[in-house]
Specification:
By secondary structure, the protein is an alpha+beta fold. The protein is 39% helix and 24% strand. Strand 2 and strand 3 form a beta hairpin. Helix 1 packs across helix 2 and helix 2 crosses helix 3. It is globular.
Length: 103
Amino acid sequence: MKSLDTSSRWRMIVKDVVLEPLSEHEFAVYNSLYSDSYMLNAIDAQILRTLCEMNHTAIDMDVLVRLVAASLDLPIDQRLLQYTEESIAQLAHVGIVCLEATN
């Protein structure tokens, strides 16, 4: 997968995302826009929670990575950046988030 620009800005599309813990490391998310649900791990769930906390305001990828790292007490490194890029791309693929259009 081609690496995303860390200055890219992402925001939620779905207004009523339901995120339910199934265990310490597994979460279910319900996408009301498409009446579908998905399984997430703890990092994916925190990425989604962080985006939800932005109240549909776009957030820079580098800020998102820093907030997720702080929330989960993870080091900010290339692995976390790559993982976040992949996770956000998958959330975009299923219609939960989108890349903010810029002029």
